[in-house]
Amino acid sequence: MPYLALAVGCLVLAVGCARKESAQKTGGGTDGPAAEAGTIGSVAPAFSLPDLEGKTVSLADFKGKVVILDFWATWCPPCRAEVPDFVRIQSKYRDKGLVVVGLSMDAGGAKDVRPFVEEFNVNYTMLIAKEETPNAYGGIAGIPTTFVLDRQGRIVKKFVGKTEMKDFEEAIQPLLEPAG
Question: Annotated catalytic residue: which of 10, 17, 76, 79?
Fold first, then answer.
């Protein structure tokens, strides 16, 4: 029986906290109204959500920045495993125009997230997602689900499931390079 619990735990760590889609979606898409929400090439859907102090933060506040937008929850082991990488990425690339934004799916809101943020020294923006937030991004089949947005607010990558830091770095580095 302990082996079954271990196997289930490993499976959750490997694939995420819900049904896993492909590890990464890339490809076409348009900026026009026909672009499907949350698809590569579409403009990221706008939101205004509370941070852990109750202050409203909008996606528009990050205009001109490269954004890593992570749907996650404190109860999700693969989500928790990515947080230290996001802390490192935020520290490493902040001065080059990167912003990491966590969108917590925790039902308890800030009271569930705040202790986690403090314990793990989270150095990036943490917001509390509303029920409709994941739907605006085409529905979130599993967490963690992470979107990478370019400086114009377009979705350039989507990762579903635990993703390695090197994969996030490969996605953001070309976007952080100065125009020239």
Answer: 79
